[in-house]
Amino acid sequence: MISSNNLPKGKTGGYLALAITSILWGTTWVSSKVAVSENLPPFQMASIRQFAGGCCFLIFFIGYKKLPLPTLKQFGWLFILSLLMFVLANGLSTWSLKYVPTGLSALIGALYPFSVVITERIFFKQRNLNTLTIVGLLLGVGGIAIVFYENIFEHHPEGFLFGVVLSTLAMLSWSGGTMFIARNKLAINPYYAIGWQMFISSIVLFIISRIVQTPIPLEQISLRVWLAIGYLVAFGSIISFIAFVYSMKKLPAAISSLYAYINPLVAMVTAAIVVGEKLTMNILWGAIVTLTGVFLVNYSIKRNSRVIITEPEQ
User: Fold this and answer.
1) Which residues have a Cβ under 8 Å from the Cβ of 155 and sit 6 or more positions away?
2) Degrees (nearest 5) of the Cα angle 151, 153, 158?
3) What whole-number distance in Å separates Cα of residue 255 and Cα of residue 44?
4) What Å distances lie between residue 195 and 84, 149, 192, 270, CA to CA?
5) Which stretches of 96-192 are assigned E, i.e. beta strand?
6) Counting Cβ atoms within 10 Å, is residue 196 exposed (0-12), middle (13-18) or buried (19+)?
7) CA angle at residue 281 from 279 to 287, to 5 degrees?
8) Spatial separation of the C-alpha atoms in residues 35 and 33, rounded to whole Å
9) What's the predicted TM-score (pTM) here?
10) What average pLDDT values come out for the chain (314 residues) when binned by 10 residues?
């Protein structure tokens, strides 16, 4: 198990962790695309990934660090988060990759601050929309419109709109998890908590995969897909999470969250290189406009609200 103690100390280590998070979580979108592009059902793939990643964390913290099991209250907290963050957010976004381009799914996933703002305004009456927030919302919608306009005349496989819906539901689930964390904090090691969330979600995802998708025997999974899953576990579920938490500890929130605006761009470029997805200047500019809007909304949330934004992963 890689420890954050192995990273350079202070802000140097924080910036290195930020770079690692930005690149790895961007490329894991493409690894997920590769894994579901063959005959492996998305929920089965997500279950395998989260089970392996969760076991690595739990073996380290329970077997080596000798941490006690979570309390019943903590288990309830972890179960809810595992459903929101890993079963729904990660599971549905993984499923969406069967139907939509990688970059589009990643870009929709980055829109979750919009959902936080709107939900808090409508249901909790806790947010006055200031000029910065409104400008950010308009830019985000405009950027997405540019990306969709570029894609709308393309021939898409059956289920494209279904994939967009899955991506949107995944984004909404992540924003729900974000607000839950802000209102229900527990004192527990963040790496240990992530391990439990992965492990719990792997069991739920396995059950779901048996119900809604026909799983395949493990021996029928190709070497290419196993390599993609291995990359997701090692780099997406372990190294990048360690780097993410470390960067949050060492850098100001405004800087440590910058990776969320780099991830979709990394996903788009990597998908164009690895799986040959279309990438034009209009798509790229649309993504930049969208992410600029997300940045403004996210900045206004962190400046004016109690809600602490957590960032999506893939």
Assistant:
1) none
2) 80
3) 35
4) 15, 40, 5, 28
5) none
6) buried
7) 80
8) 5
9) 0.82
10) 51 86 91 89 95 95 92 92 94 93 87 75 63 79 77 67 92 85 79 93 95 89 94 92 84 72 87 87 84 78 54 54
